[in-house]
Amino acid sequence: MSGLGEILVVEDTPASLKLLSDLLGNAGYLVRQAPDGELALWSASARPPELVLLDVNMPGIDGFEVCRRLKADPALCDIPVIFLSAQYEMDDKVRGFQCGAVDFIAKPYQAEEVLARAQAHIRLARTQKALKETLEELRSARAEVARNERMAALGALVAGVAHELNTPLGNSVLIASTLEDRARAFSDQIGAGVRRSDLEHFAADTAKAAGLLLRSLHKSSALVESFKQVAVDQSSERRSQFDLADLVAQALQPLKAGLAADGLLLDIAVPRGLRMDSYSRPVAHILQQLVRNAQLHAFGAMGSADGCIRVQAAAQEEGEPCGLLRLEVLDNGCGITPGTLERIFDPFFTTRMGTGTGGLGLHVVHNLLCHVLGGQVSVESAPGATCFRITLPLTAPALSP
Ligand SMILES: Nc1ncnc2c1ncn2[C@@H]1O[C@H](COP(=O)(O)OP(=O)(O)OP(=O)(O)O)[C@@H](O)[C@H]1O
Ligand SMILES: [Mg+2]
């Protein structure tokens, strides 16, 4: 972009062309001249000017056509075009704007007017160009940020998985190598003669170590199982029709004994007749996770004298979108502090390191709801009153393949 700007003046009358060129040239613009439409187009595409002053009436390709062709070329369409035409030609004005001109100068023109309009439109075009570039930069910066965030989330997830698996796998390696050492030592001992008590001792030791090993490996495979849920394997989910009341009863049955042992009351208030056409396994998983969380986090291992976990459900009330279901899990436990509340759906966020799967529970709940069941989950909490509120459609959306 040179100084004030470069202007292409297109005018078939040599005297007018010279007059205009001198006017603009003297004002400091770089001026290129074209005596007809053909040359104007050729000159513009050879090196795009910043402004075109275009005479309407020219032999051959007239001004309107030149303008149309400029506007049709992606490389030239942003160059502002000002038409020059006789004062009385109202029609020209309208047609000029229709083919994409930004302005119109009536002949005979005043020098100040030509200069003022040229300057205004070059400035405007420059600002627009800068804006476009800034927008483009912003767009690519935003894409970059999104990509970085995804990578960071993936990195955190992988680090979390590695961290969680490290303990049980490390234990397994330790136990297995101890077993190996002992077996070697024992076989060395065989040559020197083995007493029955040694044999018994070895067998008992081995059985104990194998038990520990098995426990560590089970823990690892349970972790892997739950990591798989983070990805939400949609293809394996089978859709069916069921009554929510049956599903809730079935899903929570296995937890009853443990809740009773902790002295907690499980209060299920789900009316019959909420027919769902959805994925029963994820719904059951979500219920179990929320109730287990309440048991574990709201009341702790000690339980609570009048601790209660309530599961309730209802179809959305009138005035709310129909076909939606509201499912809530409430507890009267310790509550969740605001700082914790913000992060409970994040992967690997837990306030109890080293138990369970280490903070994947609610992340999986969130994923299942959003990606499989077509629902939402929110939470409200204060000491003595925590409520996980789920909205989900009675008929689940079709899963994408
Ligand atoms: N009902 C609740 N009352 C109090 N705190 C809760 C409740 N539910 C969840 N939390 C808090 O939210 C955190 C995250 O829960 P989440 O289920 O994701 O992980 P976790 O239970 O700690 O581990 P995981 O479920 O993976 O075994 C918990 O560590 C706990 O601090
Ligand atoms: Mg949990």
From TrEMBL:
<dbReference type="InterPro" id="IPR001789">
    <property type="entry name" value="Sig_transdc_resp-reg_receiver"/>
</dbReference>
<dbReference type="Pfam" id="PF02518">
    <property type="entry name" value="HATPase_c"/>
</dbReference>
<dbReference type="Pfam" id="PF00072">
    <property type="entry name" value="Response_reg"/>
</dbReference>
<dbReference type="InterPro" id="IPR005467">
    <property type="entry name" value="His_kinase_dom"/>
</dbReference>
<dbReference type="InterPro" id="IPR003594">
    <property type="entry name" value="HATPase_dom"/>
</dbReference>
<dbReference type="InterPro" id="IPR011006">
    <property type="entry name" value="CheY-like_superfamily"/>
</dbReference>
<dbReference type="InterPro" id="IPR004358">
    <property type="entry name" value="Sig_transdc_His_kin-like_C"/>
</dbReference>
<keyword id="KW-0175">Coiled coil</keyword>
<feature type="coiled-coil region">
    <location>
        <begin position="124"/>
        <end position="151"/>
    </location>
</feature>
<dbReference type="InterPro" id="IPR003661">
    <property type="entry name" value="HisK_dim/P_dom"/>
</dbReference>
<dbReference type="GO" id="GO:0000155">
    <property type="term" value="F:phosphorelay sensor kinase activity"/>
</dbReference>
<feature type="modified residue" description="4-aspartylphosphate">
    <location>
        <position position="55"/>
    </location>
</feature>
<keyword id="KW-0597">Phosphoprotein</keyword>
<feature type="domain" description="Response regulatory">
    <location>
        <begin position="6"/>
        <end position="122"/>
    </location>
</feature>
<protein>
    <recommendedName>
        <fullName>histidine kinase</fullName>
        <ecNumber>2.7.13.3</ecNumber>
    </recommendedName>
</protein>
<dbReference type="InterPro" id="IPR036890">
    <property type="entry name" value="HATPase_C_sf"/>
</dbReference>
<dbReference type="InterPro" id="IPR036097">
    <property type="entry name" value="HisK_dim/P_sf"/>
</dbReference>
<feature type="domain" description="Histidine kinase">
    <location>
        <begin position="160"/>
        <end position="396"/>
    </location>
</feature>
